[in-house]
Amino acid sequence: MPGVVAICGAGNLGRRHLEGTLNSGQVDAVHVYDIIEGAFAACEQVVGDLGAGGAEGVLHRSLG
């Protein structure tokens, strides 16, 4: 059942969760939240390498 996934923290562990989520092919959207700008570069690399698999990827620097 496809859905929406939120990953809080885009560091090493969050990046691995993002990889697994995108590889699963079971999600419509992935929201990644982190306060550190540099963490998003690694997540963008993962999406570039794996593709989003049809999922929408959204990076958030704040929850507001």
From TrEMBL:
UniProt cross-references to SUPFAM superfamilies, sorted A to Z: NAD(P)-binding Rossmann-fold domains
Protein's recorded name: Gfo/Idh/MocA-like oxidoreductase N-terminal domain-containing protein
